[in-house]
Amino acid sequence: MSTAIQQRLTPEDLLDMQDGDQYELVDGQLVEPAMSTESGWLASWIAFVLTGHVAENGHAWVCSETVQYRCFPDDPNRVRKPDVSVLLKSTRPQRPDREGFCLERPDIAVEIISPSDALLAIKEKLADYRAAKIPLIWLVHPDDLTIWVYRDAAKEPQYLEIDDQVDGGSVLPNFQKKVAELFPPELVQEFRLK
């Protein structure tokens, strides 16, 4: 009886792969984030809303799910890709690099829950984000148009429903919107008609 030994990949292996930018790297194994078409649409909408806010004063970069972060102190070989992320210009002297991984943690990480996401995988990703001390994490649930907000200082997340206010906390102090504004209007209308 033979036992197959699975090769542990490194971040450098990921960079060398032709399609390496499509994956995360967890415990030396490739993980392809499961993003539905709806989740991609929502990620684009949230990035649009955040970009509109930061464009007023230009104090941050809003990034799509293509950015790979290698910023996890407990596992320097771990690579994650939030669905949307924000990098404050005040915490980094220059714009993001053209190639490779972002080695600094984002200031905001947004994850949109897809129907195919496994609960354990979401919990592990959230634990990684918290270990990296990402100051603000939004876990977005499209099914009921809610957001779980994790702030660096809080032990428990804040649960926000469609008519609640969501803010940027200490990261984006002037950002304040209704949760409904983080979802495309047609989704909000459809939800309200249920």
Description:
- The chain has four helices and ten strands, in the order H-E-E-H-E-E-E-H-E-E-E-E-E-H.
- By secondary structure, the protein is an alpha+beta fold.
- It has one domain (35-192): tt1808, chain A.
- A six-stranded mixed beta sheet has the order 3-4-5-6-7-8, sandwiched between helices. A two-stranded antiparallel ribbon has the order 1-2. A two-stranded antiparallel ribbon has the order 9-10.
- The longest helix is centred in the N-terminal third of the chain and has 19 residues, at 37-55.
- The N and C termini lie far apart (56 Å).
- The mean pLDDT is 89.
Topology:
Layout: H1 11-16, E1 24-26, E2 29-31, H2 37-55, E3 60-63, E4 84-88, E5 108-112, H3 119-131, E6 136-141, E7 146-151, E8 158-160, E9 165-168, E10 172-178, H4 185-192
Pfam families: Uma2
Organism: Stratiformator vulcanicus
Domain Putative restriction endonuclease: 12-176
Architecture per CATH nomenclature, i.e. the level-2 architecture: Alpha-Beta Complex
What is the overall shape? globular
N- and C-termini, Cα separation: 56 Å
- CATH fold field value: tt1808, chain A
Q: Could you tell me the strand content as a percent range? A: 15-25%
Which structural class is indicated by helix and strand composition? alpha+beta
Number of helices: 4
- How many distinct beta strands? 10
The CATH homologous superfamily is termed: tt1808, chain A
